[in-house]
């Protein structure tokens, strides 16, 4: 019995499904990570002027971060890292990496920098025994690793019928 992929109509549908999936995945990456890092950096660097809020200061009081580099400095550094990740998101957009035929080194880098940022926060939360936050941050880190794999399964790293080709194997 013929399937949709056996005729030209099926190929067109698969191509449309591949393209729409590609667009939705890439849009989700830029919107999700762009707004995540924009608002996180804005809060730390501008709204709070690089000063850690008092409830967090209490939680990290006496920890390694309290000594090196200091709580406000750690908070400021986290805000700077988040701002850098956001700027890489913007650079990726400006470079047109969202287009299917463009390679995505900046997109892959903002995902990798996101993982590093999550790992830094995971370290800090582990240090003070906030294991619920640790679990949540580890989930973000692992999910971001999976998103890197997903990006590498899409064009231009794979055929433009990337999704259909995965289901035909």
Structure explained in plain terms:
This protein is mainly α. 75% of the residues lie in helices and 0% in strands. The protein contains 7 helices and no strands. It has helices at 8-47, 54-60, 64-67, 71-94, 105-127, 131-153, 162-167. The mean pLDDT is 92.
Radius of gyration, Cα only, in angstroms?
20 Å
Mean pLDDT: 92
Count of helices? 7
Describe the largest sheet: none
- What structural class should be given to the helix and strand makeup? mainly alpha
What is the 3D shape? elongated
Distance between the termini: 18 Å
Total count of strands: 0
Order of helices and strands: HHHHHHH
The share of residues in extended strands comes to: under 5%
Low-confidence stretches: none
Query: What portion of residues is helical?
Result: over 70%
Tag the structure with descriptive keywords.
single chain, 169 residues, mainly alpha, 75% helix
Topology:
Elements: H1 8-47, H2 54-60, H3 64-67, H4 71-94, H5 105-127, H6 131-153, H7 162-167
How would you briefly describe this protein structure?
With 169 residues, the chain is an all-alpha fold. Helix content is 75%, strand content 0%.
